[in-house]
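G.,

No rush on this.
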Amino acid sequence: MRYRIKLKNVIKVLNCLYTKKAIFLFWVLPLSIHAQLIVNPSHKNLFKNLFSTSVLITLNDGSTGSGIIVDDSLKMFLVTARHVLFTYDTINKKYKLKTNLINILLYRDDPLKENYITISVQFKDTLDDSIVKFDKNHDISVIFLAARYKESTSMSLVHYLKQVTIDKHTSVGSITNKAVRLYADVTLGDNVYLCGFPTSLALKSMPQFDYTKPLLRKGIVAGKYEKLSSIIIDCPAYWGNSGGPVYEENGEYLNEEMKLIGIVTEFIPAEENNYQKKNSIQYINSGYSIVVPIDYAFELFRKFK
């Protein structure tokens, strides 16, 4: 009998410890991790970097798109979707620029501080390809903005091309080639962030947000289409988002650096049958989007001597 009583006591103690451990694992630990993500200053800086390198592109015809400033250590480029800048001439069967002037708006750090910079790029004509290149097989294009000249090991000067006008003599935020992740290294299931200017959202007569400031959207890497070397993300994109950068989390927590994996170019449509009308099919946004890998931008960079 005494043996049984002692065994019961041991079982009670073990149950108590197990309960306390369970409470710690399922309640205390997740809360502590969540609190760390909220207060971690590097967490906030990551998102400031996303905003400061994303740009709003406005063309003379009123159309808009998104883009990203990328620096390969020798030159500075604007990367965006091909269809943002070009249209296809069905008669002459070639691409041409939609307009000979584009305006670029970007923020130095936090968009809430209104500390923005405007850049304009003037082309000779709609067939001018001296500072702009595009990929014929993938929806991506780049504009050569500036060249870097090293004065020392720790300092370099930025010289903007004559076709480029910047309203403030200040540094422009850019993504370096060390902060990118190539197509082969993109991992299925990883978290991704889409940053851009979805100007088609909401009613223009009753605006619910500032169209000149970027919006952030979170999703995951849903798949990779090897035939086209494209990335599918479970993250909806809308008109205006085209050309916007997509970042992949580099690690388990947000206090690690994110990597640029490409630009969003289109959403994947889904069929929706209208059963009230026979043989009536309409297409809606499926919530999945296509990303062109940043690899193709670097291929275009190499075409500029």
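When you get to it, here's the other one too:
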Amino acid sequence: MTTERDTFDDSVEEVRELMASADLEQDAEGIEQRGAALLQNRRQLFMLALAVVLMVVAIYVVFPKLVGVSDAIGKLGDATWYWVVVAVAFNAVRFLSYTSLFSGVLSGTEEDIVNRRLDLRASYQITMAGFAATILFSAGGAGGVALTYWALRRAGMERRRAACRMVAFMVLLYTIYLFALVLFGILVRTSVLSGEDPLAGTIVPAAIAAGVLLILGLVALVPGDFERRLATVRRRRRLQTLATGPATLATGVRTAIAYLRHPWQSANAIGGALGWWAGNIGILWASFHAFSVSVPFGVVVQGYFLGMVANLAPSPAAGVGTVDAGLIGAFVLFGIPAGTVFPAILVFRLIAFWLPIPAGVLAYLQLRGTVQQWSEEDRRATIQSEVTA
């Protein structure tokens, strides 16, 4: 008889059935090389710091003037200090939650060398370093993904296992995002939660999110041996190659669904995903309160998730500028005056986006040391096995 535990373990075990793309392997190696080169090149470090300063000036000085709220910077000094402290506390909560999610999904449940290496300390380093890499080494937003993959491979995880677990990680995280868009869109529109309820900010995004969830559900139906089945067809090598992507995504989706179906067995992962989004919303909620702006809870949640859709738009580094504009536009759509929204969003982005960057850079330096320790362990293990042989 198949038990619930067996079903869960079997679903998670599918991670070993997938091939990671060659592009991701190359990107991971590129992250390591670019990181080392950046640390050794003072000119590049100076240019990077200058670019960050220019982006801050553009967002906090130029952008407000362009949209007609030039007094937004002056209002930043009016923020109530203890609400800013609350926002910073929520920032710590979200990264601790993200670390828990990472540990719950990517370190796995098997007692092996990878599980031992990917403890909470290493998970924190990879989480924070990945955040910094998304900004500093951004290649279409893939910097953090490539750094995470690099760290997993250096920890000893097989390519197939690393690829699938990363897919499951992202699917689990963004499934909650999509569910929230549907749930709060309906609750605000039907006046179960108070606040203005524009169709474009409630039902429309809820319907789109529901459609994406449906597509993910259909993707999960792609058989795990899809690639192998095409391999049996003569002269279809190209089809076999193309099948690798859908097969990887399908198994990752099924693994994420397994976590959702068995919440007690995957409390770290699910709690971490919920905590990440709750922490972000908490920062935003506290940022509004810092300026005594009363925004209904349902609008705060729906406005946040709606505004974050702007993260999909092309941006030089991890949504700089586009997310700010998207969040401001979302709350203006819900009837919140732009003059009061702007300073709150600027504080939100300052705490949620800019403040963690130094910690991320420090974590990256620590991670390089951790990876070096893993390499030394592997070298000694190799020598020991050769002596034994």
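The mean pLDDT is 78. The first helix runs from residue 4 to 13.

Enjoy the weekend,
O.
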